């Protein structure tokens, strides 16, 4: 009986996979293409987060190019905050290189003399940081492992050759004015649950210093919010783009958050890169492109967000 | 004659459902599934019913899905019944929801009913003190009635928000650390906080699947801590009262596909 059930289950999976593949094929050929990057949308996220599935052998140039592209698209459409996250923490380990790259692309003094870059506003990730007032008489220290880079260039970015399609990129940039400031957050798995544990350790230290009894310690969500979303943390994103993933058989795997910081996910709209643009090694990109994110996925996520309704419990 | 035909259809349907569940149970089965039961009001509007009827139909859907999960062998089901934010709704709707909770909680726990039949222990998760006194009393009684059941768990989250749960867990962890001389603050890890989560205190296994209905692609402050790692998120456009086995089967197939993939990956790493 169990053998028969197992056989039936495999048949069911086969039928499901076949119908999913056909549906995906049909969708690919009937789907309306997303609006252009600069098209007017009813609603735009202020803060966009992207989960990148960076493999351990990903080249540094690919990562820098991804940061470069995402930054450029956000500034073009008017998104003012961008969070980049990867589940292996590789993005964060390239923190210094990304900072240096951003300095190159958005230099302190541009050709027109209009550029300005605030760099760096936060210490390197290895530093113990944060000193936030929780109440007038005390302060809390916690290690949130978030790197913040402010890009406030008022002119077009300087060209930095990172990849082969530089000429194409230059042409693109020359036709689009980039004037919007952007704050870039580099977030790692340590900024997730470990950051909340770090906050708890900080509260214990603080209570011990001030001699508070256990029952005298009361915590409000607003206090934790102030700490995790404050200067050394990062604010909650309005929209999160997650990468599609394929199994060993090439079938699509279910949506996951890969350890993205839970506190900030409260009201975040979740968009997923379409499976038909998924590269075989599980990243947000397309088969002919080695970058970690493609513009179509970005534009499609903005279109989805534009149509989302927010009710906030009402 | 019509009644006989109806009975036959119902019998065939039941048998087909049982066979389908038996087939699904031949593969890996999730231990913990959570539902965000969204879309009751839109379902009511679409079907020209009053809002309260939409919520009543939503409760029937919960019963239906709970039974499917239990038959499948799922150990724990969590349902987002009422958010702390929902107190912002029209007083008439809040009152109707509280009355529904009061009426249905005891019904669900009664001898011979679903929770008794499947040995399910009920936990009300959230800030219970915010509920009206009468609902609190019923919630206490319902929990007591099922406290000896140990085959499965039902977490009814009301009134609940995940940020409130995380804050409470951090507060409890800090208090525990302050209370113990051996408990050095340097030793507090995410596991300590996890142990203080309301779902952990209710002995719930890690969350495998979170399903949200009605086309909304947000978590809306539900189980944020529990679902950020290795949890399958499933968003479906069906309104909650219409959610049934047809929508549920692909979710389980996706879960099985993921588990098999993880097994293959783990074997490759060995």
Automatic annotation (TrEMBL), chain A:
Pathway: Protein modification; protein glycosylation. Keywords: Endoplasmic reticulum, Magnesium, Membrane, Signal, Transferase, Transmembrane, Transmembrane helix. It is found in: Endoplasmic reticulum membrane. Residues 1-20 form the signal peptide. Transmembrane segments: none annotated. It catalyses: n isopentenyl diphosphate + (2E,6E)-farnesyl diphosphate = a di-trans,poly-cis-polyprenyl diphosphate + n diphosphate. The keyword Transmembrane applies. Its cofactor is Mg(2+). Its EC number is 2.5.1.87. SUPFAM superfamilies: Undecaprenyl diphosphate synthase. It is an enzyme of class 2 (transferase). The keyword Magnesium applies. Its main location: endoplasmic reticulum. Belongs to the UPP synthase family. This is ditrans,polycis-polyprenyl diphosphate synthase [(2E,6E)-farnesyldiphosphate specific]. It comes from Hohenbuehelia grisea.
UniProtKB/TrEMBL annotation, chain B:
It comes from the Eukaryota. Transmembrane segments: none annotated. InterPro entries: UPP_synth-like (IPR001441), UPP_synth-like_CS (IPR018520), UPP_synth-like_sf (IPR036424). Its EC number is 2.5.1.-. Keywords: Transferase. The keyword Transferase applies. Belongs to the UPP synthase family. This is Alkyl transferase.
């Amino acid at each position: 009986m169990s053998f028969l059930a197992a056989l039936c289950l495999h048949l069911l999976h086969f039928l499901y996979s076949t119908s999913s593949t056909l549906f995906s094929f049909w969708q690919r050929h009937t789907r309306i293409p997303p609006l252009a990057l600069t098209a007017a949308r009813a609603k735009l996220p202020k803060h966009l987060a992207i989960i990148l599935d960076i493999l351990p052998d990903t080249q540094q140039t690919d990562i820098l190019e991804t940061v470069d592209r995402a930054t450029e698209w956000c500034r073009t459409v008017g998104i003012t905050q961008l969070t980049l996250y990867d589940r292996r923490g590789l993005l964060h380990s390239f923190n210094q290189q990304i900072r240096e790259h951003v300095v190159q692309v958005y230099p302190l003094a541009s050709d027109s003399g209009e550029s300005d870059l605030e760099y760096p506003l936060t210490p390197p990730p290895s530093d113990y940081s944060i000193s936030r007032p929780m109440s007038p008489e005390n302060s809390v220290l916690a290690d949130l492992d978030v790197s913040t880079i402010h890009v406030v260039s008022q002119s077009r970015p300087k060209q930095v050759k990172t990849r082969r399609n530089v000429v194409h990129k230059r042409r693109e940039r020359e036709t689009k004015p980039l004037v919007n400031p952007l704050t870039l957050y580099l977030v790692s798995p340590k900024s997730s649950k470990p950051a909340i544990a770090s906050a708890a350790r900080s509260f214990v230290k603080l209570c011990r210093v001030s001699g508070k009894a256990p029952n005298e310690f009361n915590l409000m969500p607003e206090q934790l919010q102030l700490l995790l979303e404050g200067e050394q943390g990062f604010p909650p994103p309005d929209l999160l783009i997650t990468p599609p993933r394929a199994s060993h058989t090439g079938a699509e795997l279910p949506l996951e958050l890969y350890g993205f910081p839970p506190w900030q996910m409260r009201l975040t709209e979740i968009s997923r890169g379409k499976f038909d643009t998924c590269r075989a090694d599980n990243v947000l990109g397309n088969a002919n492109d080695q970058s970690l994110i493609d513009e179509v996925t970005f534009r499609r996520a903005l279109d989805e967000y534009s149509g989302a309704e927010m009710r906030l419990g009402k | 004659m019509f009644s006989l035909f109806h009975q036959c259809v119902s019998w065939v349907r039941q048998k087909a459902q049982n066979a389908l569940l038996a087939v699904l149970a031949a593969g890996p089965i999730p231990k913990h599934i959570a539902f965000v039961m969204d879309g009751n009001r839109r379902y009511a509007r679409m079907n020209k019913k009053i809002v309260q009827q939409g919520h009543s139909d939503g409760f029937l859907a919960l019963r239906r899905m709970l039974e499917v999960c239990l038959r499948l062998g799922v150990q724990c089901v969590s349902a987002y019944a009422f958010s702390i934010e929902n107190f912002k709704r029209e007083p008439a709707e809040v009152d109707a929801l509280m009355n529904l909770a009061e009426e249905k909680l005891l019904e669900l726990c009664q001898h011979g009913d679903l929770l008794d039949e499947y040995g399910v222990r009920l936990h009300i998760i959230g800030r219970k003190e915010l509920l009206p006194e009468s609902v609190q009393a019923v919630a206490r009684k319902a929990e007591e009635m099922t406290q000896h059941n140990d085959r499965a768990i039902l977490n009814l989250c009301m009134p609940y928000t995940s940020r409130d749960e995380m804050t409470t867990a951090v507060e409890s962890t800090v208090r525990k650390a302050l209370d113990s001389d051996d408990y050095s603050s340097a030793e507090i890890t995410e596991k300590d906080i996890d142990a203080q989560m309301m779902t952990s205190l209710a002995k719930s296994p890690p969350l495998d699947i979170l399903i949200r209905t009605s086309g909304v692609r947000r978590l809306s402050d539900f189980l944020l801590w529990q679902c950020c790692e290795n949890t399958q998120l499933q968003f479906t456009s069906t309104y909650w009262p219409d959610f049934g086995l047809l929508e549920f089967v692909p979710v389980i197939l996706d879960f099985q596909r993921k588990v098999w993939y993880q097994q293959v990956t783990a074997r490759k790493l060995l």
